[in-house]
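Table S2 (text version). Query chain:
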Amino acid sequence: MDIACWQAVPIVTFGLGTWQIKRWRWKLNLIDNLERRTTAEPIDLPLDLYELDDKEYYRVKAKGKFIYEKEFLMGPRSLIVDGQAVSEKGGGVFSGKSSTGYYVITPFKLEDRDLTIMVNRGWIPRNARSTYKQENKITDSMEIIGIIRANEKRPPFIPSNSPASGVWHFRDLKAMAKVAEAEPVYIELSAGYGVPNGPIGGQTRVVLRNEHISYIITWYGLSASTAYIWYRYFIQKLHVI
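Corresponding structure-token output:
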């Protein structure tokens, strides 16, 4: 490796370490913002639905009735417990070893206005896909609290949705709303507001990985070590063994 390359390595790695510090601060702000939104007092669903555009992850409350006849599944998805995915977890009549299953998306007709939204009532395991409609259902008017989620672009390597076949892999709110005969408003039901022994609520991922400290240490460590090697080899004219 020539002198120019040796000079470049500590400089580049130092720059990468500095960039990771910026990423670390950005992630801390993101985590703090997510924590504040998901733990704040629930707000009423606004009359102007455009106000929801900047309200993702806010908790909202609404009162009305579920329209079970038009519900559908989305998945496969992993079970979320305490804000993060788990490898093996189950619950209620749907208990099982696998943490792979589906979300139950149900239209919800509001009581105080002519408006229907979509609610992710929770997670069911894969083996309950053909039997989940047999669960006990709450048909009376009820108040629910959930977390607002925005539209989702198709993630890489995930198949496209097939509304005609009732196959949903990601949140395409406009297409889902058309099938559900609802507005493109989607909330994830908080734990404790579902049907006993029914879908497991609280399916919002709120735990974000923050591994930037390890990256910072790695890049700065490489910068320091390569700078030392450069100094020994080219300044002191010593060969590194």
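Notes on Table S2: Confidence is low (pLDDT under 50) at residues 88-97. The CA atoms of residues 72 and 166 lie 7 Å apart.
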